[in-house]
């Protein structure tokens, strides 16, 4: 339970989902999608985060209409979901990337290793990696190696 509370706080405060009830609802929706611990970030690639955000925004299913107070069964309405701001999606992608880097070096991700400042660095690193072009074989030196 403490792990869920920690990730919820992280999502609301560092990722920026908001400290109000709407932020808690957005955080809980993300947690329900499987991002329920810092270790879980390692399982989410960029494409997974891009799929997660629309899933939270339009989850489908029906929920009870809280505005309809009537006798008997409550009226059902489509689940409105929770909107995830674009900047939050960017931070989630950076956090997932950072967690994967930490996994590669045998470190556990946590709220400190995935702080807001480090997310900026991870984002820049990811952009650099994605924009890197490997040199073609024609760029290799024709000089033989020294013996």
Which descriptors would you attach to this protein?
two-stranded antiparallel ribbon; 147 residues; mainly alpha; 5 helices
Compressed to H and E, one letter per element, the order equals: HHHEEHH
Structural class: mainly alpha
**How would the global form be characterised?**
elongated
How much helix is in the residues?
A: 40-55%
Architecture overview:
- There is one protein chain.
- The chain has 5 helices and 2 strands, in the order αααββαα.
- By secondary structure, the protein is mainly alpha-helical.
- The chain has one domain (2-129).
- It has a two-stranded antiparallel ribbon.
- Helix 3 (46-57) runs antiparallel to helix 4 and helix 4 crosses helix 5.
Q: Brief overview, please?
A:
This protein has helices spanning 2-13, 21-32, 46-57, 86-104, 116-131; strands at residues 62-64, 76-78. It has one domain. It is mainly alpha-helical.
Compile the SSE list and pairings.
Blueprint (H helix, E strand, L loop, with lengths): L1 H12 L7 H12 L13 H12 L4 E3 L11 E3 L7 H19 L11 H16 L16
Antiparallel strand pairs: 1-2
Helix pairs in contact: 1-2, 3-4, 4-5
């Amino acid at each position: 339970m403490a792990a869920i509370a920690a990730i919820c706080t992280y999502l609301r405060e560092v990722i920026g989902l908001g400290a109000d009830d709407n932020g808690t609802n957005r955080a809980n929706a993300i947690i329900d999608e499987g991002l329920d611990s810092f270790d879980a970030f390692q399982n989410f690639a960029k494409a997974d985060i891009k799929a997660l955000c629309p899933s939270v925004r339009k989850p489908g299913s029906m929920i009870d209409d809280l505005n309809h107070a009537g006798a008997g069964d409550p009226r059902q309405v489509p689940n409105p979901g929770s909107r995830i701001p674009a900047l939050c999606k960017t931070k989630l992608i950076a956090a997932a990337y950072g967690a994967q880097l930490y996994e590669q070096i045998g470190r556990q991700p946590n709220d400190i290793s995935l702080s807001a400042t480090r997310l900026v660095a991870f984002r820049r690193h990811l952009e650099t990696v994605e924009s890197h072009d490997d040199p073609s074989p024609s760029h290799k030196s024709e000089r033989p190696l020294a013996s």
